[in-house]
């Protein structure tokens, strides 16, 4: 529970890449997958992401919860799409091949293909994000953000967020327990009024302690002249190596492939029915 | 060179504010009884932070907090909703800028101002921005995303009206008392 991000030291290829390279690759591949509605491309992307996950040597125990949650979330969304728009695939591909029955809720090949693509779109980025989270030191991540053009004040804010998540989590559960001990419960059994009073009590405590913390940290940073220079250096700054260049070129090539496919298909969709 | 607009205090407020936002997002959700829909307490926290620190801080808290939470809970960042959340804070912050909600006690008039502002910003963000981006970026069926958007709009407006207003009241009350103590010194 203490380590939401789960960064672990290791010696895999992904550990040796710099934080900024990984961030750019993650963004490039995510954009590719979000843009494309070509099932062949999405399958390829998913396979690559899974191979990467295997290479990164992350154990199933560590990622079980997040994988199950993501799959449940994705399936719920697929059901919702079917309930609201059972013939959306037909509308997208402009043809109709029935598999089961007829009528407005008939199952068509087009709908199946569309829903499969949506599922892949939910799932392909999970291995990518897991690789990123498990192999990137949070401090390198912020240095990487600054390097790709995010202003350093914002990058520094992200560092503070990452640094304070475990603290806030601990504080939150402590406050929650204290309030529970005083009889303010926000569990499923309590009534609406009880839940709201409980939540407001937790939040009130959290707000004032957080505002105090903000003041303290601000003073400490001002004493150290934060924000006076136009640039700042990072403790965890890394220089680009050969490995980074190769990985970046591969990721860029993948995006170009996706865009190329879109140009051949004349749209974001690949239509096997026409 | 562009002048750095964020003060040190704002940078810290964004950092710690986003951490609290993420924790609330992840660990407090009051189920409404409708599947897959919860009252998100984090939105009230975001509104209060926006009142105290302004629209830009609110925007960045929402974007950083929401995207990090998506990444660690689902592995994929649902950009359309992340952006919509940021836009909520931005619009809300701009709408209430002139109201001086933190000067003195929370009067009925100020509470109305706060709530009209949050309602307006919620409507723009969740009924317009989020569904439109869902359709453009993810090509989701229109009727589905519009229903989802409307549902979140209603839930967010109600929860911010109840919890957000309460928090603002408690905050301003305590702040005024602190001010009095300094004066008497």
UniProtKB/TrEMBL annotation, chain A:
The keyword Ribosomal protein does not apply. The keyword Membrane applies. InterPro entries: ABC/ECF_trnsptr_transmembrane. It is found in: Membrane. It is a multi-pass membrane protein. It comes from the Bacteria. The chain crosses the membrane at residues 23-53, 65-84, 119-136, 148-166, 245-264. Pfam families: CbiQ. Keywords: Membrane, Transmembrane, Transmembrane helix. Its main location: membrane. This is Energy-coupling factor transporter transmembrane protein EcfT. The lineage of its organism: Bacteria, Bacillati, Bacillota, Bacilli, Lactobacillales. The gene is ecfT_1.
From TrEMBL, chain B:
Keywords: Cell membrane, Membrane, Transmembrane, Transmembrane helix. InterPro entries: ECF_substrate-spec-like, UPF0397. Belongs to the UPF0397 family. The keyword Nucleus does not apply. It is found in: Cell membrane. This is UPF0397 protein LMG032447_01037. The chain crosses the membrane at residues 12-34, 46-65, 77-96, 116-139, 145-171.
């Amino acid at each position: 529970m203490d380590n939401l991000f789960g960064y672990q030291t290791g010696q895999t290829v992904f550990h040796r890449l710099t934080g900024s390279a990984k961030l750019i690759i993650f963004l490039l591949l995510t954009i590719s997958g979000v843009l494309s509605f070509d099932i062949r491309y999405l399958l390829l992307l998913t396979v690559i992401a899974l191979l990467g996950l295997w290479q990164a040597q992350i154990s199933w125990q560590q990622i079980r919860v997040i994988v199950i949650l993501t799959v449940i979330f994705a399936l719920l969304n697929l059901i919702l799409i079917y309930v609201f728009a059972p013939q959306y695939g037909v509308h997208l591909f402009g043809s109709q091949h029935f598999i089961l029955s007829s009528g407005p809720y008939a199952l068509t090949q087009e709908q199946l293909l569309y829903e499969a693509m949506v599922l892949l779109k939910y799932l392909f980025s999970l291995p990518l994000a897991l690789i990123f989270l498990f192999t990137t030191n949070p401090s390198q991540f912020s240095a990487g953000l600054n390097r790709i053009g995010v202003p350093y004040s914002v990058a520094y804010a992200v560092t503070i967020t990452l640094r304070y998540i475990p603290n806030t989590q601990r504080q939150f559960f402590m406050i929650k327990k204290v309030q529970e001990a005083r009889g303010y419960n926000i569990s499923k059994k309590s009534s609406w009024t009880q839940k709201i009073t409980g939540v407001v009590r937790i939040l009130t405590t959290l707000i004032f302690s957080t505002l105090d913390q903000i003041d303290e940290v601000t003073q400490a940073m001002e004493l150290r002249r934060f924000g006076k220079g136009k640039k700042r250096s990072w403790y965890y700054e890394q220089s680009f190596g050969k490995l980074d260049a190769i990985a970046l070129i591969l990721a860029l090539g993948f995006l170009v492939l996706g865009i190329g496919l879109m140009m051949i298909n004349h749209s974001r969709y690949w239509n096997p029915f026409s | 060179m562009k002048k750095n607009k964020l003060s040190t205090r704002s940078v810290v407020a964004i950092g710690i504010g986003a951490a609290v936002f993420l924790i609330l997002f992840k660990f407090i959700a009051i189920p409404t009884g409708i599947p897959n829909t919860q009252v998100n307490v984090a939105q009230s926290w975001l509104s209060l932070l926006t009142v105290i620190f302004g629209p830009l801080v609110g925007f960045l808290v929402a974007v950083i907090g929401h995207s990090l939470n998506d990444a660690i809970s689902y592995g994929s960042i649902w950009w359309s909703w992340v952006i919509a959340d940021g836009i909520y804070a931005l619009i809300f912050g701009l709408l209430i800028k002139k109201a001086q909600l933190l000067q003195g006690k929370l009067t009925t008039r100020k509470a109305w101002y706060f709530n009209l502002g949050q309602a307006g910003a919620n409507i723009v963000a969740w009924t317009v921005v989020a569904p439109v981006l869902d359709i453009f970026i993810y090509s989701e069926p229109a009727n589905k995303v519009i229903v989802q958007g409307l549902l979140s709009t209603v839930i967010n407006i109600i929860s911010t009206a109840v919890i957000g207003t309460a928090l603002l009241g408690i905050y301003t009350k305590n702040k005024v008392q602190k001010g009095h103590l300094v004066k008497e010194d």
